[in-house]
Design a protein that fits this description.
29% helix; 168 residues; alpha+beta; 3-stranded antiparallel beta sheet
Length: 168
């Protein structure tokens, strides 16, 4: 696979961009809090750092990874969206996290829709799924709003994870 540059994507309200060290404090704060309960957290600082680095390292290694989500009007970072792959993910997996102060504003939907379009389009992925904790009703509803369908007998990373399949 030839190297893929980390894309910058724009939507009506959002800028999806490469993460920087300036993003670490807010990311770490979320991942080390109860808000990370549906992402196998809360995490220790070392675990959060590993996840942060993992999100960036996937780009040169696998041609996918995470992008930070900025509100274009205010410049505030509101969260992260990513396509994960590699040995921990049987298929390319679309995931999102929105910092608590910015939830409920449609940012995850807008960002996930844009990155999914990039994944199927420019990146040429054949399949994209979302792994969601069964108790995470907001993410389940978002996956369904995105048109993803729950698979009843999927290949998944663990029995406690629901798999939603996205359509091209």
């Amino acid at each position: 696979m030839r190297p893929i540059l980390i894309p910058t994507l724009e939507t009506e309200r959002l800028l999806l961009r490469q993460q920087t060290m300036d993003d670490w404090p807010a990311y770490a704060g979320m991942m080390m809090s109860e808000h990370a309960q549906y992402m196998e957290g809360p995490h220790t600082m070392a675990e959060a750092w590993g996840l942060f680095c993992h999100d960036l390292a996937q780009w040169p290694l696998l041609g996918c990874g995470a992008l930070m989500i900025d509100n274009r009007e205010t410049g505030e970072c509101v969260g992260q969206v990513g396509i994960n792959h590699g040995p921990l993910f049987p298929e390319h997996e679309l995931g999102w996290l929105i910092y608590p102060a910015f939830q409920g504003k449609g940012y995850a939907y807008e960002a996930a829709k844009a990155l999914r379009a990039w994944g199927f389009g420019e990146r040429g992925l054949a399949t994209i799924v979302s792994h969601i904790d069964p108790g995470n009703d907001p993410s389940r509803k978002l996956a369904e709003r995105l048109g993803a369908e729950l698979e009843l007998d999927p290949d998944r990373p663990g029995p406690e994870v629901l798999v939603y399949r996205h359509k091209r």
